[in-house]
Write a structure and sequence with these properties.
Elements lengths: L3 E5 L13 E4 H4 L4 H11 L12 E6 L5 H15 L3 E5 L6 H10 L4 E5 L11 E7 L8 H13 L2 E5 L10 E5 L2 E6 L3 H10 L2 H10 L5 E4 L6 H11 L7 E2 L20 H9 L4 E5 L6 E5 L2 E3 L1 H15 L1 H6 L3 E5 L5 H9 L2 E5 L7 H5 L5 E4 L3 E4 L7 H15 L7 H12 L1 E12 L1 H16 L7 E2 L2 E8 L2 E2 L6 E2 L4 E5 L4 E6 L7 E11 L9 H16 L1 H5 L6 E2 L1
Parallel strand pairs: 3-4, 3-5, 4-9, 10-11, 10-12, 15-16, 15-17
Antiparallel strand pairs: 1-7, 2-6, 5-6, 8-9, 12-13, 13-14, 17-18, 19-26, 19-27, 20-21, 21-24, 22-23, 24-25, 25-26
Bound molecules: alpha-D-glucose-1-phosphate-6-vanadate and cobalt (II) ion (CO).
Length: 557
């Protein structure tokens, strides 16, 4: 018998899940009862439609970052307190976000708790994060995250099981009172799923027949290392030198595990220096990806459009299930819309954050979707999936090379020849003063309300319309307001400004710019040069420098 005790607690401020779970400094989570409060608030918010917490089966995964071990123990104690009946936990608590989504679905679990702050740095001085996913395998929708927040504001008592420390380092099943703890290998099910989706033989024979085609995968010391090792080395038979930083480390080796040209610089440099044909990287929890080629960077917005374009030709999963609709987050470039139009498919524009794609997928109306923030995925699970995107690209490469040698750059240029090119870039201003950032966005909102922006011409661009993006979910009718200021120009160019919902310190301003061209002579232009006039307009309209005191962004992607 395990004794369940009740102890008094007090609510903590700010336990409001952001774009993707609650992310705070480790030190914040280390406060007495802070993590317990949040886990209990989360379990108590499990929706009735999923069966509630009593007798629930919860999948637990994460990127293995610093402080995960302690939180795993908290989850056991709180689960006992709430009458959860089974925890399915990855070995040492490590399961990538997409793999966890798969396990939730495959095992028909009630939901999942993911211990990750994704691409945010880890370690005692950095970030920790906790995210809840529902029974469809996707991030909890706002109705649930709001409930978690409400619970966290009124919590007065913790109910926990008093048990000795559970060992998560051995596979197998343990009974702890009425709670079963099952420890599984988080890689197996995922690799199996990938084999159902892609034609592994065709990818493998592409590598065998093109010995001089060289690739490099960078796990960024995050959770995808063991997955990369399995796929690229063990399954496709590539040399060990085709993977780097593939051992998960609790502090990511001090690196910022965010796959973009800035933070995956080592990969970019190796690809350039060694003249490699294909480079890919994933983030801390394995849901993001970056794809590069020889002298080629594939923007995530282009990547998802290209995958959608080739899906039915190159990927067995879509040959079998078809492609039913496409979607992107609002700031993501409209390249994928053009593919949808050409293919006669429905397409959707949702707010930032993967949770908004889930309903569309559950309703069978979205097969492939993506975000500009290096997120790409499909309805095989309900999270974005970094390695899935890499395998999709390898499938496309294997497919187009059957006819004639085709590089990543060739694939891009071919796509532009068909659809035109959507130049796109995002400027991030990290850790700026929160109040000033709010004021900057509020000023734009007021101008929008007073209709001061429409028809204004600035830097040669005339504004067609401006709004603060609002989303009406076509499936459940819920409305999400204030999702980002959109300024759309008469030539179709766009500027979007919003504040990040994943940072843990100050505010991060994200400025997105997009410009479309169907002038073939421009397709090889450099992105920043092509966008410079529009960026100047964005800075002028937003008065960003005046509000934030910054004249250069922290990161450009
Ligand atoms: C960012 C990205 C967003 C993504 C989210 C979670 O959110 O912009 O597109 O869904 O991170 O990704 P924000 O609110 O900071 O802009 V992950 O890989 O950190 O779970
Ligand atoms: Co992530």
């Amino acid at each position: 018998m395990v004794s369940i005790v009740s102890t008094p607690t007090k609510p903590f401020e700010g336990q409001k899940p952001g774009t993707s779970g609650l992310r705070k400094r480790v030190k914040v989570f280390q406060q007495e009862n802070y993590t317990e409060n949040f886990i209990q608030s989360t379990l108590e918010a499990i929706p009735e439609s999923d069966g509630g917490p009593k007798n629930a089966t919860i999948v637990v995964g994460g990127d293995g970052r610093y402080y995960s071990d302690e939180v795993l123990q908290v989850i056991v104690k709180c689960s006992l307190g709430q009458g959860v009946s089974r925890l399915i936990v990855g070995l040492n608590g490590i399961v990538s976000t997409p793999a966890a989504s798969n396990i939730i679905r495959k095992r028909k679990a009630t939901g999942g708790i993911l211990l990750t702050a994704s691409h945010n740095p880890g370690g005692p001085e950095n970030d920790f994060g906790i995210k809840y996913n529902c029974s469809n395998g996707g991030p909890a929708p706002e109705s649930v995250t709001n409930k978690i927040y409400e619970n966290s504001k009124t919590i007065t008592e913790l109910k926990v099981g008093i048990v000795p420390k559970v060992d998560f380092s051995k596979l197998g099943t343990q009974e702890i009172g009425d709670l079963t703890v099952e420890i599984i290998d988080g890689v197996n099910d995922y690799v199996e799923l990938m084999k159902e989706i892609f034609d592994f033989d065709s990818i493998k024979s592409f590598f065998t027949n093109n010995k001089d085609f060289k690739m490099l995968f960078d796990g960024m010391n995050g959770v995808t290392g063991p997955y990369g090792q399995r796929l690229f080395v063990e399954e496709f038979g590539l040399d060990k030198s085709s993977i780097m930083r593939c051992v998960p480390l609790p502090d990511f080796g001090g690196a910022h595990p965010d796959p973009n040209l800035t933070y995956a610089h080592d990969l970019v440099e190796s690809v350039e220096k060694d003249g490699l044909d294909f480079g890919a990287a994933s983030d801390g929890d394995g849901d993001r990806n970056m794809i590069i080629g020889k002298k080629a960077f594939v923007t995530p917005s282009d990547s998802v459009a290209i995958i959608a374009h080739y899906a039915k030709e190159a990927i067995p999963y879509f040959q079998k299930n078809g492609v039913h609709g496409l979607a992107r987050s609002m700031p993501t470039s409209q390249a994928i819309d053009l593919v949808a139009k050409k293919m006669g498919l429905e397409y959707f524009e949702v707010p930032t954050g993967w949770k908004f794609f889930g309903n569309l997928m559950d309703a069978g109306r979205c097969s492939i979707c993506g975000e500009e923030s290096f997120g790409t995925g499909s309805d095989h699970i309900r999270e974005k999936d970094g390695l899935w995107a890499v395998l999709a690209w390898l499938s496309i490469i294997a497919h187009v090379n059957k006819e004639k040698p085709t590089s990543v750059q060739d694939i891009l240029q071919k796509h532009y020849q068909i659809y035109g090119r959507n130049f796109f870039s995002r400027y991030d201003y990290e850790e700026v003063d929160g109040k000033s950032a709010e004021e900057m966005v509020d000023r734009l909102r007021h101008q929008i309300e007073k209709n001061e922006l429409a028809n204004k011409t600035i830097g040669g661009f005339t504004i067609d319309k401006a709004d603060d993006f609002e989303y009406l979910d076509p499936i459940d009718g819920s409305i999400s307001k204030n999702q980002g200021v959109r300024i759309i120009f008469k030539d179709g160019s766009r500027i979007v400004i919003r504040l990040s919902g994943t940072g843990s310190q100050g505010a991060t301003v994200r400025l997105y710019v997009e410009k479309y061209s169907n002038d073939t002579t421009e397709y090889t232009n450099e992105t920043q040069t092509a966008l410079k006039p529009l960026i100047d307009v964005a800075l002028e309209l937003s008065e960003l420098e005046k509000f934030t005191g910054r004249n250069t962004p922290t990161v450009i992607t």
